[in-house]
Amino acid sequence: MTARRFRKLLIANRGEIACRVVRTARAMGYRTVALFSDADADALHTRAADEAVRIGPPPPRESYLDIDRILDAATKTGADAIHPGYGFLAENADFAEACEAAGLVFVGPPTHVIRSMGDKAAAKTIAEAAGLPCVPGYRGEDQADGRLTAEAAAIGFPLLVKAVAGGGGRGIRAVHAAAELPDALQAARREAKAAFGDDRLMLEKLIEHPRHLEVQIFGDDHGNVVHLFERDCSTQRRRQKIVEEAPSPVLTPTHRERLTGYAVALAKAAGYRNAGTVEFITDAELNFYFLEMNARLQVEHPVTEMVTGVDLVDWQLRIAAGEPLPLRQRDIAIRGHAIEARLCVEDPYDGFRPQTGIVAHFAPQEGGSIRFDTGVETGSEVSPWYDSMVAKAIAKGRDRTEAARRLATALEDAPLLGLPNNREFLIALLRSEAFERAEIATTTLDDWAHLAAGDEASPFAQARPAPLHWALAAALHAEGSGGAGEWFWSGSAFDFSLTLTCGVETKRLTYTRPRSGPMAVAVGGDRVDIALIENAPPRIVFEADGVRRRATAAWGDAKLYLAIAGAAFAFAEPDHARADDVAEAGRIAAPVAGLLVKVLAQPGQAVAAGETLALIEAMKMETRVTALAPGRIAAVHAGAGSQVASGALLFEIETKDAPADVR
Ligand code: ADP
């Protein structure tokens, strides 16, 4: 095999993975080229590489998925290799082929492997031949509803409808009874068509409460295949991984040997080269079932790096250059335990709805056993066009307990301010008894009713500001750059009064600065003595009740964002408080910014409360727009296929209570 030398690597991706690939490429002495859409002109990844090329407008199809433009960018900059990252074109065989046709080194497996493994049905056929156990199901070419219905009956319920071209948990529907099948087929087809341009479906028996295990493998051009052990990605929400770890807390050495053996057998059978992941689910008895093979680097690859000491991107680049694998199987070992958590700008207290806006503060500290892979920093804009995962936090420990503790603490120390996000949720999750005992299966979080907002007794409930938090907010407004409130002389001290809101609460606060001693803040009936020791946002040190504490503060969007000990709050003056974005029953607004994929209600149509009126695709997820009360559609303000802003008026509804004047 001849060496495939290259000097300059173009990263056909964005966000944290583009930044992460640049880091290793640079360390290896390669020049790097980033791509950016108009939405990412100032993004972290755009600035991370040596050069960056604008490839088009924000929609992925016109930028990060546009093969011709990406190849143009390579030509323009003289890049001679391409790393696809994950998502976007990472498992697109046409892209790999086009790269090779253009004389570029594609950092990934051979085209034929991407093609066969990208097709879940074809991959299962190869896997079965290699001796891997698969979940019983139907994966035939005949896609007629009649055939699928008959096959479903033969498999039995519950079952899963899956997109053959699927990935990222999309195009999957659970079906518990025959009556649910037609809707599930339709929804899965629509989602698969939109996401993958391929609406073929397959059916699979549903394994109840499974764990998700996957094995990292690597192959080279010289006939070597090794595994780098397993990752356990059972902590999922709606089939999306949120916390991943290595090694799995449930495998015995015997099971580990069997699982990794399967993965290596498949990689050999498939003629695999470069990095890949073989995914399995397992039931409570540790029966393994092959799910699919991902022919690329995974989001959660850092946990493998932390426990094996191998830089997977370094290996990817070496293998792409034709070098042999740097280590033999017997030289690869696991030390300690690593856990990763995905930081997403999704609001756990509002159905995990994706958020967009400006990051008012994010400056995580790395070191030793803590790693952050991030695509944003203070000042970054999160646009509605791409994934809501903005960073990953990874911690290593001598054992699982230590890794979880370190990760939770690292997250506490790394507030992401300015946008609602899942940081506090992740901290509560890592500290939960269920996680500690490794009892979380892929469906567990979906079954946890107490995750819903409002259950105040739950450790997952949204933190409410305590008098101390209100007091600090008042002190920072009085002594800082807040602008709100007013001072007056009370005869013996300066008083400062203001009204602040935080979430649904509003409080009148009076802050008193005496001639000497700590400031006192009256918060409703409570009195808090507080002294600002250091007021240099984002760094705040204050003393209250004889205890010195640190806080992180950022001003932005007429709000004060404040993080203390793992909790984060946004304080605003009532005038600036965000108008309640829950639409009144008669005016239904877009809950998120995104693409209006389907409008289901027409003018004049009667609708029931909770009825789905439209579907918006934002950040790779479908969000339903529903009627809040029964009524009749008076007007529809946007058509399918249009891009809508968050809060844009979509429907006007004459509700039943309104004057009966519907003509
Ligand atoms: P994707 O490629 O979209 O990630 P997968 O086939 O890997 O889809 O499945 C995603 C997740 O769905 C898995 O991690 C697992 O939690 C769940 N899952 C997939 N197949 C089954 C099954 N047959 N039974 C139960 N859960 C499944």
Write a brief structural summary.
This protein has a 9-stranded antiparallel β-sheet, with helices on one face.
Portion in beta strands: 25-35%
Estimated radius of gyration: 27 Å
What can be said about the biggest beta sheet?
9 strands, antiparallel
Termini separation comes to 77 Å
> Number of helical runs?
16
Count of β-strands: 38
Strands side by side in the biggest sheet: 22-23-24-25-26-27-28-29-30
Might you state the CATH topology name of the largest domain? D-amino Acid Aminotransferase, Chain A, domain 1
Number of domains: 5
CATH H-level name of the largest domain... which superfamily? Answer: ATP-grasp fold, B domain
Q: How does the helix and strand content classify structurally?
A: alpha+beta
Descriptive report:
The chain is globular and about 85 Å long. With 663 residues, it is an alpha+beta fold. Strand 28 and strand 29 form a beta hairpin. 24% of the residues lie in helices and 33% in strands. Helix 4 runs antiparallel to helix 5 (111-118) and helix 12 packs antiparallel against helix 13. The chain is built from 16 helices and 38 strands. The strands form eight sheets. Strands 22-23-24-25-26-27-28-29-30 form a nine-stranded antiparallel β-sheet, covered by helices on one side. An eight-stranded antiparallel β-sheet has the order 14-13-10-11-12-15-21-19. A five-stranded parallel β-sheet has the order 3-2-1-4-5. The termini are far apart. It folds into five domains: 8-107, Rossmann fold; 136-205, Dna Ligase, domain 1 (2-Layer Sandwich); 211-453, D-amino Acid Aminotransferase, Chain A, domain 1 (2-Layer Sandwich); 467-571, Glycoprotein, Type 4 Pilin (2-Layer Sandwich); 581-655, OB fold (Dihydrolipoamide Acetyltransferase, E2P). Adenosine-5'-diphosphate binds at residues 135, 160, 162, 166-170, 172, 204-207, 210, 212, 236, 239, 279, 281, 291-292, 442.
